[in-house]
Every structure is written in C-alpha cells, then in structure tokens.
Amino acid sequence: MIAEHLDKGQAYGNIPKVISISILYFDIGEGEDYIYRGTTSFKGIHDNKILQLERNQKEYYDLNRIYNVFPEYYLIRVNRFNLLAKDTLDEWIYFLKTAEIKDSFTAKGIKKAKKALDVLELNAEDKRTYDAYQASMWESSYGVGKRQGREEEKLEIAKSLLDVLDIETIALKTGLSVTELQKLKDKL
Questions:
Q1: How far apart are CA 83 and CA 93, in angstroms?
Q2: Closest Cα partner for 40 from 69, 6, 62?
C-alpha cells in the first residue's frame, strides 16, 4: 500500500506510520489485560541478532528503534474491560462495550459520537432510515468491499504494465476500459 502514501521518487521516510487497531469482543490468547500492543521486530535467521537502524538513519528519521518505522498493532479485548474508565482511551472502550457515553467523558470526538450515534433520540422516520441503512450496509459491505478490492487490484496491475504493454492489451487482460487506462496513464 506504499503507492497510496508515497509519490514516485519520494523518500521512504515520508510514509506515515501504520497503526492497526483490532477491537475484539472475544478472548484471544492468554492474559488478563484488555489492551495489548505489538511492534514489528526483525531477527536474523542466521545470526539471531535483532535488526537495528544505522546511526545516520536514526538521525534522518529522528527515530531510535526500527519498530518505530514499521507497523504497530493494538488488540483491544472489549470483553475483558472492567468498566472503570481511567483515561480517555478507556472512555472509548467503555462506549464500545456498553454503547453508552457518560456526560463526564472527555475523550476527543466522544461527544460528537454520542450525538451522531444516539439512535434512541431519533424521530420515527430517521430511525427507519437509520435501520434501513444499517441493514443495507450489513448485506452489501462484504460484496462491495470485495468488488472494490478487485478494482483496486486491476488498477495496480494496469499501472505496472503501462510502460510495458499497449493500452488495448492491458484493457483486454484486466477488463478495464481503454478510457480508464488512458486517464490512468495521463495521471501518472
């Protein structure tokens, strides 16, 4: 997914940090905590040494450890949360577990979420619209996501072939139209 965040010729250090957050409503693994953090680490297959940034890379990227460059992972086990909101992250987890936001909560964006998601205060017509929207999202999200993924994959393949094959051949092999491919070529 580098192409989404990095223009051709741009330094690798300009890629934004990727943070993956998995909100789990079930137990995975052993452990009592409700929030786990993981980082990416690389260990040599032959010498078992951990890969480190070089001194000039540390200075250039203004980072100390290689795991600061690569993805960071958080597992939030909502079912393990004890409903004691000690900080703003806990306030969001409380909301995820109970679908309730207390007036005392101060987490960034949580008041907006309360206003936007308080279905109980909707009038009857808005409630029907909301329910229909939720149902259609549930039914179509898998299929739409899969179709979008296929289209993105076709575009990526087409991008890689534009300097090798003619547009007509790429159109034939990817199913994209000649017009789409010409626009893509002009954009690149």
A1: 8
A2: 69
